[in-house]
Amino acid sequence: MTCNSYHPQTDRRRESRFVANAPATLLWDGVSEPVTILNISVFGALLDSAYVPSVGARVTLIGDHLEVCGTVIWQGEDRCGLLFSRAVDPLAVIQEPFVRTTEPPITLREVGPGRYG
Question: To the nearest whole number, what is the mean pLDDT of the chain?
Fold first, then answer.
């Protein structure tokens, strides 16, 4: 009898992604489409829109404090992922005073006098 173990897939990205929910415009092949930047990192973004370009499309993303070219690297129904052609400052895009990353919070508990784990 074989025993299979399955572990949840972890995100192995080097750069943190930040929740944005920022309005922007996506341009490609003469199309101008309003989008919402759901999250953003130094090298890419997750976008939500009624209409998204196909994988491989070269696009320009324009928003507050942002104008960057990129390539669509995956496409879903109403969502797509972009890989930017250059690094950007994701914090400049986010308009909220409080910014949280998409990583889970760390909780420490006291495991002994003056010791936490």
Answer: 82
User: Taking Cα atoms as reference points, which of 37, 40, 41 lies closest to residue 63?
Assistant: 37
Spell out the residues 6+ positions from residue 22 whose beta carbon is closer than 8 angstroms to its own. 36, 37, 40, 63, 64, 93, 94, 95
DSSP structure class, residue 114? T
Nearest partner of 36 among 44, 51, 25, judged by Cα = 25
Global model pTM greater than 0.85:
no
Name which of 1, 92, 6 is nearest 42 in CA terms: 92
C-alpha 40/C-alpha 34 separation (Å) is: 16
DSSP 8-state code for residue 46: E
Judge whether 44 and 81 are in contact, CB under 8 Å: yes
Report residue 69 as tokens. 């070219």
CA distances from 101 to 36, 90, 109 (A): 17, 11, 22
